[in-house]
Design brief:
CATH class: Alpha Beta
Bound molecules: adenosine-5'-triphosphate, (3R,4S,5R)-3,4,5-trihydroxycyclohex-1-ENE-1-carboxylic acid, magnesium ion
Strand content: 5-15%
Subunit structure: Monomer.
Oligomer: single chain
Strand order of the largest sheet: 2-3-1-4-5
CATH topology: Rossmann fold
Binding site for ATP: 12-17, 120
InterPro entries: P-loop_NTPase, Shikimate/glucono_kinase, Shikimate_kinase/TSH1, Shikimate_kinase_CS
Number of strands: 5
Catalytic activity: shikimate + ATP = 3-phosphoshikimate + ADP + H(+)
Protein name: Shikimate kinase 1
Number of domains: 1
Length: 174
């Protein structure tokens, strides 16, 4: 692997889960922008948003993306990283961008089972089903614009990893 692989997609599509598994399989570095950002800020995303607002979180997110992007490795991003045109272009130029795409009911089921409110404060104030649907409708085109490849993320994590290995022709043990 000679370029970083950026995993993008909505909350619950499995960027962190699949990224960890892919990195383990390919013996690569793994970094998660949400986790890195929270560790370096010393507070959760919910606390950042409450104290500083979404704009400040988005600025921190771009700085994180720049800081974690190295010559190679797997980078799991936050669900809203594609909102910034700068971030979209940065990822496309620096590496390979994969959109983990899943339908709304799949995302809602996963997020209801594991809400992680500290990392996922509400984006709209709406109930989860309405929020996921509204946010995906707004962002799907941006995920597609940023992506070099789109992978079906409604499969099991192991299957999603295998699809990525095949699509990118990665030389990893299966
Ligand atoms: N392919 C999958 N099949 C079943 N469950 C999954 C799959 N991928 C992830 N999950 C589960 O869904 C939940 C959310 O996954 P994960 O945290 O990896 O999503 P994410 O895309 O990183 O979300 P965020 O944008 O909030 O960081 C977790 O509980 C995880 O175990
Ligand atoms: O979809 C989003 O806008 C977000 C997704 C999470 O990964 C976090 O990056 C944060 O909660 C924002
Ligand atoms: Mg994640």
């Amino acid at each position: 692997m000679t370029q970083p692989i950026f995993l993008i997609g909505p909350r619950g599509c499995g960027k962190t889960t699949v990224g960890l598994e892919l990195a383990r399989l390919c013996q690569s570095q793994f970094v998660d922008t949400d986790h890195w950002l929270q560790t370096h800020a010393g507070k959760s995303i919910a606390e950042i948003v409450e104290q500083e607002g979404w704009e400040s979180f988005r600025a921190r997110e771009t700085a994180t993306l720049e800081a974690v992007t190295a010559a190679s490795g797997i980078i799991a991003t936050g669900g809203g990283i594609i909102l910034s045109p700068y971030n979209r272009q940065f990822m496309r130029e620096k590496g390979i961008v994969i959109y983990l795409s899943a339908p709304v009911p799949v995302l809602v089921e996963r997020l209801e089972a594991s809400p992680e409110e500290g990392q996922r404060p509400t984006l709209t104030g709406k109930p989860i089903g309405e929020e996921v649907s509204a946010v995906l409708a707004e962002r799907d085109a941006l995920y597609r614009e940023a992506a070099h490849h789109i992978v079906d993320a409604s499969l099991t994590p192991a299957q999603v990893v295998q699809h990525i290995v095949r699509v990118l022709d990665l030389a990893c043990a299966s």
